[in-house]
Design a protein that fits this description.
By secondary structure, the chain is of the alpha/beta class. It folds into two domains: 3-186, Rossmann fold (3-Layer(aba) Sandwich); 190-316, N-(1-d-carboxylethyl)-l-norvaline Dehydrogenase, domain 2 (Orthogonal Bundle). Helices cover 49% and strands 14% of the residues. It is built from 13 helices and twelve strands. It has a five-stranded parallel sheet, with helices on both faces. It has a four-stranded mixed sheet with strand order 4-3-10-9. It has a three-stranded mixed sheet with strand order 8-11-12, with helices on both faces.
Length: 318
């Protein structure tokens, strides 16, 4: 299977790099500056299963083929496109991968939320789009290396209607034994919703409180507020027909209200670092879906407002 990985950042660089290191047929689609760096220096992954620890180590460097969008237009054919961009890079990615998809490639997006699915289906048709999501704690350092972080990397993927297809089996075979957990799922759409429900409540807790999960849950009214926030996100999923199980929600609430937790959602980490955030894909889209379903979601609405202010201030200062 010929696989095109869109992006060589925290997600695409990690999974694509590990697959390339395992000998899979992987090519990266990158912006010109990043493409030049990876062509000159290779893609280095530090930490993670079977790799050296981050501190003081050089990691593993792989040299995989690289294309830019301009080169892809007349480039080789691919079987699968793994879309590993941030939500705010989706529109440009849709344009960039168009030639590959129109030439027969299937798209496997690893973004959070569900808005990207609607966009990809509208652009390429439902039969061209798989479901999928990732769990990672990786990030890029100042040298452009992928630091894998403490969370064991994992991806889940499947046909959105739950069917078992040849293309899904082909990717499953390619993804296995590459140094990360690879799971083929017949319920991937429900699982994507379940992750979104948790992630939005997680980010909302950090943004509204300004603190870690432990600080928020230890504050007066913290547990009650977090409980209400998770109930809001679950209500939107229920209106769409994908409410997580009571057991999953109970587990989520236990994690979110752990008074010893120092965790922050990646969106909150990005906000605190002054980076772009995926606010509309994770929070805004839930509010819009709640509005269409007639659901009250005051805490999600307040989170959207706070993130909107951050985004406006960031854009105004360049």
């Amino acid at each position: 299977m010929r696989i095109l990985i869109v992006g060589a950042g925290a997600v695409g660089g990690l999974f694509g790099g590990l697959m390339a290191a395992a000998g899979r047929d992987v090519t990266f689609l990158l912006r010109p500056e990043r493409a030049a760096q990876v062509r000159d220096e290779g893609l280095t992954i530090v930490g993670g299963p079977g790799l050296p620890d981050v501190d003081g180590q050089n990691g593993v460097t792989v040299n995989a083929p690289v294309l830019t969008a301009a080169e892809l237009r007349d480039g080789p054919r691919f079987d699968l496109v793994v879309l590993a961009t941030k939500a705010y890079g989706l529109e440009s990615a849709v344009i960039d991968v168009g030639p590959a998809v129109r030439n027969g490639a299937t798209v496997l997006p690893l973004l959070n939320g569900m808005r990207h699915i609607d966009r990809l289906v509208a652009e390429f048709g439902g039969s061209s789009v798989l479901g999928g999501y990732a769990f990672v704690s990786s990030y890029l350092d100042e040298r452009g290396r992928v630091l894998a972080g403490p969370v064991a990397p994992a991806i889940t993927y499947g046909e959105r209607d739950g069917s078992d297809t040849e293309r899904l089996r082909a990717f499953d075979a390619a993804a296995r034994d590459c140094g990360f957990t690879a799971t083929r799922s017949a319920k991937v759409t429900a699982e994507m919703w379940a992750k979104w429900v948790f992630l939005a409540a997680f980010a909302g807790t950090n943004v509204l409180s300004g603190g870690t999960l432990g600080q928020a849950s230890s504050a007066p009214g913290g547990v009650a507020t977090i409980t209400a926030l998770l109930a809001e996100t679950a209500s939107v999923a229920e209106a769409a027909g994908f409410r997580p199980s009571d057991g999953k929600l109970a587990k989520d609430l236990t994690i979110l209200t752990d008074t010893t937790s120092g965790n922050r959602a990646s969106m909150d980490k990005d906000r605190r670092a002054g980076r772009p955030v995926e606010d509309e894909a994770i929070i805004g889209d839930l509010v819009d879906r709640a509005d269409r379903a007639g659901l009250p979601v005051p805490l999600l609405r307040a989170t959207r407002m706070a993130l909107g202010v951050y985004r406006s201030e960031r854009e105004s200062t360049g």
